[in-house]
Amino acid sequence: MDEPGMLYVVATPIGNLGDIGARALDTLRTVAAICAEDTRRSGQLLSHFGISTPLLALHEHNEDAIAARIVARLQAGESLALVSDAGTPLVSDPGFRLVQAARAAGIRVSPVPGASALIAALSVAGLPSDRFAFEGFLPAKASARRERLQGLATETRTLIFYESSHRIGEALADMAQALGGERRAVLARELTKLFETVLDGSLAQLQARIEADPDQRKGEFVLLVHGAGDDADAKVAEGRRLYAKLSQHLPPSTAAKLAAELSGAPRKALYGAE
């Protein structure tokens, strides 16, 4: 019986094609096939570097159905690569089920590291980077998004989110409400691309900035938010979370009083948090 092949998880550029590594190119040239989230987009990357390896579509809608067939090819001795549209696969991209199935079948899975939008953004943000929490994309529904943010209000680690152009304004508004408009944040847009910008300020300032400049609402975003600071900040954040919940059922003054008593936050800091 043939020795099983290898599944290579290959990071590709998030914008600037010059960021791809020599090992990534060698891997993409020599594997039997490349599992790609979007074969057209990956095809453009391969064409740029003169690579003719066959592409196999693997995305969120078909991953469950074809993972077993891909594992069978690996078991038969073929080595394959997995790529996403950009950056490191599995980070808010498809591939988890394939990697899980390959490892369960005893297939060796090897990373070919490279670009990652969240790490690139963190490296230039000037926010604490020793401890951070990656939250991926927030829910599309406003109520679910606000509930998620309220649950993160007392998180002390730097928070990192991905966001799309058509929701960035709403996301910043909801963050200012749930985490406090004064909370420091960084908005990294179109990293490594022609119109790259990295803006910093408070959540309220960033919200105003993108509202005033339509160009800052275009592209792909990584949004980084300073974690809850000292004990006083944590109390205010928890108070705002409680106030948002209580004010759905009680008059604002009563909700603020109860939230202040339960959290230890100053009552006046909770008004206007709804």
**Spatial ordering of strands, largest sheet:** 3-2-4-1-5
Write down the overall geometry: elongated
The total count of helices amounts to 10
Query: Any idea what the radius of gyration is?
Result: 22 Å
What structural class do the secondary elements suggest? alpha/beta
Task: Give an overview in words.
The protein has 274 residues and is of the alpha/beta class. The protein is 40% helix and 18% strand. The protein has helices at 22-30, 39-48, 63-75, 96-104, 117-125, 142-151, 168-179, 203-212, 231-246, 252-263, and strands at residues 6-10, 33-36, 55-57, 80-83, 108-112, 132-137, 158-163, 184-189, 197-202, 221-225. It has a five-stranded parallel sheet. Strand 6, helix 6 (142-151) and strand 7 (158-163) form a beta-alpha-beta unit. The longest helix is centred in the last third of the chain and has 16 residues, at 231-246. The chain is elongated and about 70 Å long. The termini are far apart. 38% of the residues are buried.
Short structural description:
The protein contains ten helices and ten strands. By secondary structure, it is α/β, with parallel strands linked by helices.
Top keywords for this entry?
274 residues; alpha/beta; 5-stranded mixed sheet; 10 helices; elongated
Describe how the helices and strands are arranged.
Layout: E1 6-10, H1 22-30, E2 33-36, H2 39-48, E3 55-57, H3 63-75, E4 80-83, H4 96-104, E5 108-112, H5 117-125, E6 132-137, H6 142-151, E7 158-163, H7 168-179, E8 184-189, E9 197-202, H8 203-212, E10 221-225, H9 231-246, H10 252-263
Parallel strand pairs: 1-4, 1-5, 2-3, 2-4, 6-7
Antiparallel strand pairs: 7-10, 8-9, 8-10
